[in-house]
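Weekly structure sync, notes
Attendees: PL (lead), two postdocs, one rotation student
Agenda item 3: pending single-chain targets
PL asked that the sequence for the first pending target be pasted directly into the notes so everyone works from the same version. It is reproduced below exactly as submitted, 498 residues in total.
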Amino acid sequence: MSQVTVIVLAAGGGTRMRSKTMKVLHRVGGRTMVGHVLAATRAVEPARVVAVIGHQREAVGAHVREIEPDAVLAVQESQDGTGHAARIAVEALGGSVEGTVVVLTGDTPLLRGESLAAFVADHEAAERAVSILSAEIDDPTGYGRIVRDEEGDVVAIVEQKEADHDQREIREINSGILAFDGAFLGEALAAIRNDNAKGEFYLTDAVGIARETGLTVGAYCLDDETQTRGANDRAQLAELGRLLNRRILDHWMTEVGVTIMDPDTTWIDADVVLAPDVTILPGTQLLGATVVAEDAVIGPDCTLEDCEVGAGARVVRTHGQLAVVGDGATVGPYSYLRPGTRLGAGGKIGAFVETKNADIGDGAKVPHLSYVGDAEIGAGTNIGAGTIVANYDGVAKHRTVVGKHARTGSNNTFVAPVTIGDGASTGAGTVVRSDVPAGALAVSAGPQRDIEGWVARRRPGTAQAEAAAGAEGAAYAGGGDAGHDVDNEPADGQPPLS
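Predicted structure, written out during the meeting:
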């Protein structure tokens, strides 16, 4: 393969999207449409990439540069057709291009890199002036038609509005993806005119120019026509998303060995990485750069974005973002892993637990009904049910540290910043406001006091009082002590309760 220059057309506004977001920046399968196209270009190892931008040029240009930092940005001030856009791109490269030039549209996210590489190789092997990436489709309405002569050579591409009745019956269509000999492209761009129904400069007119000068024109027809599909509105975008998702799922199932229980309810982004023998249960979305190691089970009903899940881990009915789950750990159900969560090997984050910026050590457990934020939980520690890490004082966030093999009671509140030492314990209902030494027991509640007869005096005539009286009567009949503290004076010098 010779030197290849890629031109990506990404200047159009996409008004049918009815969106404030530029069409090529709409996302499908975890990438923008133009992001998928740029990813496919890597298969031809381009020497240069030029993006033609126009509408929302700042946003589109910045996004292109995020993906391809060395990309050349060519600004098309007015959208006067694909021929005009290609001319702007060549001018941005100094006015001439050598080798092979591939022109792509920025809204064809299903294009495969291997298909693009095969197309370029076919173009160069045939030494053509122009090659067209084509496909045959059942309903070619709206597409330019590939017109061939009796020998099968391409003689023209005719746009829908310019086509006669017979040409509209042709099912082989132009994908909008073209390959050129660089020297010829410069000559053709100077010769293209805009004397057509739309008053635009059609790059496809280069086919006729090549034929008139006796140069070779050909078409490379794809077996999979979905690779040529673009999206002009939200409905088409959703259909592309469905097709892309099924392609991704089939790859993981057939080529890697991932079990996907219900493909119809499973969505996996293009940049997700799965190991063999991962199991994905129904209702699961794996998004962004999520990575799942072998033998892990995800689902049902999970959404993980930019997360790492270790080997043999189990994640059930969980929403996670920028979180790490260690080998053999368990999460869920109904857990919320916010950014910065790290769960160690063999650890547990249980039902109705929210974590954020929390490092939970190997074998440590936060079983249920707790919030752990801005905290470090040592290896082997168990956090009691209903625990709240009070990390925010109204101005700043503070950190809580719980040591190794600690045992904290239910319904605790850790008022950060605070440290609970290795092997320490806390009693149920404790509010920890100061550091707890290693091996100590921290309690903050006083002894329980029972004020006998309080309901009868304070809630007379209620169902509660009737129930209490019935129980007291039963106690009398059984010889029990049902005496009342009638003067309401608790022992130990405590004030009376009312």
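Discussion points:
- The first strand starts at residue 4 and ends at 10.
- Residues 481-498 have pLDDT under 50 and may be disordered.
Action: rotation student to compare against the earlier draft before next sync.
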